[in-house]
Specification:
alpha+beta, Double Stranded RNA Binding Domain, eight-stranded mixed sheet, four-stranded antiparallel sheet, globular
Length: about 525
């Protein structure tokens, strides 16, 4: 059972940097440096009429660390005359609307309504849960919120420009192939942001995993879910730009997104480069936890129902919690982690993978946007991607950290259809490709009718063997004879010591926090050579 602090903690509140109460501009993220007040003391003062509801809820937001917003909203239809309406929004959950003849009165009533639900939960939690240690110290992680606010471009927000870029690219790529346009109903895309604007550099579609047994040759794509295909396409894009950087042509090197990091041997992204991830479906796994689990951010049920927040496995199209007794690990031919858990991992280890980490610092996305018209609540994704691993940074090796992506809902780009369950094809593309590749997701190989085919064996350009080939090209270009000496795909990955250390730390941390054990990959799957 994981500790309640995993549930209780919301995102760090944004504070005014000009607040005179802050000491000399000191960076105080996430946690107040003052000794925390006891919530029970505050509640008692409220019940003795020494504090009103508005003051109490703001104090509790600081002490318990949840996000609070008092949002002006629409006056209910049954209310006549001039009235104001406000509702409290706690960690993304809206509470009953307060009505008043003044804004102050409406805010006060909204706070009272929220406290009616909040206070019993706090008191129940205090009596029902075992004693736990104090909250952990401040976590200094990269906070993309300032970045997102700074990077409005051309008068429109980042959240609008990302889906616009995705829509443009999908129309461009799929217009010659209307017969497979249904594949876009499950789409994920990586969008690069530079001073020139926003551009899709990699995308993938798909919603299935292969029914084949684990391959010992590295030539089968086992997971063809959209986000996974898009991420592997992104890796191809990164390899291309690494080869550009290390080329002998100054013009190509200047066009690369990479630069030499200051005081280090690795490369880093140029300062004006950032990545965003678009997906038109809420990822499977903990991100889809039942809404009742988070109706109240302090509910006891949220602490008890750990299966919802634990790691999840994808098995033959079904999702199982690793903590569930209904899943038999030995009975399945092929198991992969849920997309939500993979996103959680990539926000710590980076999206570049072990092989590319030999050359570059970890690459993270600054925002994850969901264009799912059927989704109105992304709190589960916020918890699973951001909060499950929020205390890990101090344990990680140099360059690695937990990066909080800005997670939000955006306009839908491709419409999901009832046929999506019947679509087994997966389409991939990255910048520089002459054409798309269509993969049979159930077989894990390129389809005969695909516009791009690597050869008669129909091995996908996203398969592990193809990635190892690109890795060796890069190692040869950079004269990394130590990497060229690796006898297998597995050995080349193991040689990335900081990456492997960070991965071990991450999995140990998830287990320690009660989210379950990350399954060990079948050894035969990575033991192939060139």
């Amino acid at each position: 059972m994981f500790p309640p602090s995993r549930i209780l903690r919301g995102n760090p509140r944004q504070r005014n940097p000009n607040n005179p109460r802050k000491k000399d501009g000191a960076a105080r993220r996430g946690w107040n440096a003052r000794p925390p007040l006891d919530p029970n003391v505050l509640i008692e003062r409220y019940r003795q009429d020494e504090m009103n509801a508005l003051a109490l809820i703001h104090n509790l937001a600081q002490v318990v660390q949840f996000q609070l917003e008092l949002k002006e909203t629409v006056t209910p239809a049954h209310v006549h005359g001039l009235h104001f309406a406000f509702c409290a929004v706690i960690d993304g959950v809206e509470y009953k609307t307060g009505i008043g003849k003044s804004k102050k009165e409406a805010r006060l009533q909204a706070a009272q309504y929220a406290l009616e639900d909040l206070l019993p939960a706090i008191e129940h939690l205090k009596s029902a849960l075992p004693e736990t240690p104090d909250f952990p110290p401040p976590l200094l992680v990269k906070d993309p919120s300032d970045f997102i606010r700074r990077t409005s471009h051309g008068g429109s927000s980042v959240n609008l420009q990302i889906p616009q870029a995705v829509r443009f690219q999908l129309n461009k790529v799929f217009s010659p192939h209307p017969d497979i346009s249904v594949c876009t109903s499950t789409t994920a895309a990586f969008v690069i942001q530079t001073s020139a604007g926003f551009q899709v550099v990699a995308f993938g579609t798909g919603n299935v995993s292969t029914r084949e047994s684990v391959s010992s040759t590295g030539r089968i794509v086992h997971d063809s879910h959209a986000v996974v295909a898009a991420r592997r396409s992104l890796m191809r894009f990164l390899y291309r730009h690494l080869l550009m950087f290390f080329s002998q042509t100054a013009e190509l090197k200047a066009k690369s997104i990479f630069q030499q990091s200051v005081g280090g041997d690795l490369l880093a992204l140029k300062s004006d480069v950032a990545f965003h991830l678009y997906t038109n479906q809420l990822p499977k796994g903990a991100a889809q936890m039942h809404s009742k689990l988070r109706l109240n951010p302090l509910s006891v049920s949220a602490w008890q129902v750990n299966n919802e927040m634990g790691l999840h496995l994808s098995v033959e199209g079904k999702i199982f919690s690793v903590l569930s007794a209904t899943f038999d690990h030995s009975a399945s031919k092929l198991v992969s982690m849920s997309v939500t858990d993979k996103l959680t991992q990539w926000q710590v280890l980076g999206y570049q993978g072990a092989l590319i980490s030999h050359f570059v610092e970890p690459i993270y996305v600054q925002s994850i946007v969901v264009g799912d018209s059927g989704c109105s609540d992304i709190r589960g994704m916020e918890i699973s991607v951001n909060q499950r691993v929020e205390g890990i940074t101090s344990q990680l090796p140099m360059h690695y950290c937990m990066v909080r992506p800005h997670i939000s809902l955006v306009p839908q780009v491709a419409t999901s259809t009832s046929e999506v369950a019947l679509v087994t094809q997966s389409v991939n593309w990255s910048e520089g490709d002459g054409s798309i590749e269509i993969v049979d997701g159930l077989e894990g190989k390129t389809m005969e009718g695909s516009p791009f085919k690597s050869g008669s064996a129909l091995a996908s350009r996203l398969c592990k063997a193809a990635m190892l080939h690109r890795f060796r090209l890069l190692a040869k270009e950079t004269q990394r004879h130590d990497l060229l000496a690796a006898s297998s795909y597995r050995e080349a990955k193991r040689m990335a010591k900081p990456y492997q250390e960070a991965k071990s730390m991450l999995r140990a941390y998830l287990l320690q926090q009660g989210f379950g054990a990350w399954p060990v990959k079948v050894s035969v799957s990575d033991n192939f050579g060139v």
